[in-house]
Request: fold
Amino acid sequence: MPVSAVGRKLLLTSGSITTAVDRMVRRGMVVRSVPPTDRRRVLVGLTPGGQALLKAMLPAYRTLMEEAFSSLSVVEKSQLAVLLGKL
Reply:
């Protein structure tokens, strides 16, 4: 995924996402690559270690999200999703 797209998804500035990606590269969680067809773009991808960490963390993340939104009804969750999409 392009670094800029990751930054948009995480609501980080270009400087902040660069720092975050640098940190994750140092920890061996992601790698950067430059497509030969467009050297202006920088892609970032998960390493096997990054994939394993994500897979290990996902169940706990899901549980936390379920707890955080448990007080909302199905309709309210749907409304929230629409409103957050507009942001």
Remarks:
- The radius of gyration is 16 Å.
- The longest helix spans residues 48-68.
- Helices lie at 3-10, 14-26, 48-68, 74-86.
- The beta strands are 30-33, 43-46.
